[in-house]
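Worked Example 4.2. Consider the chain below.
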Amino acid sequence: MSFLLALLFTLSSNLDNFVMGLTYGVKNEDIPLSSNIIISFITTFVTYLSMLFGQLITHLVPHKFSNELGSVIFILMGAWFIGSDLFKKQQIAQEKHRDLSIKGAIILGFLLSINNIGVGILGSITQLNIMLVVTLTFITGVGLTYAGNNLGDHVIGKVIGKYNDIISGTLLIGLGVLSLLFTF
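Applying the procedure from the previous section yields the following structure tokens:
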């Protein structure tokens, strides 16, 4: 069950990578592997740091309470992602006009890692395995960016891109509910 929760966690926090890749794919612009790795490394590193911070919090709060609190916050965060669909589409529209260079990859890496901060802290509070999450964050980051970039002109890519926040929010809500049901 821990692997499933970690996978849901990383998919929800990295779905923006798919949309960013999709944005470039729609314009027939490739994201070089080096840029993809830079983006994924930055989001992975920020996730790792936020999870370490979350571990510090767990030493201050009893496990049972922190797990339930983290689970409820995952659910609320998922609801927020679903409700913030309009804001996210404005960000994507702004990103469409950039060429992806190494400098652009670094900037996008930090922008894409913003939601990983809060989610990383919560993942640590709910006792997700840090090394598993960090590894899956990197793998899903590279994979989702690549997939989005290559599916850019296809119907499935456009549908997922259109409903990114709803999908991500639903994954977070599912993660919160599963974390409430199963104690680690």
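The CA atoms of residues 64 and 183 lie 8 Å apart. The mean pLDDT is 77. Compare this with Example 4.1 before moving on.
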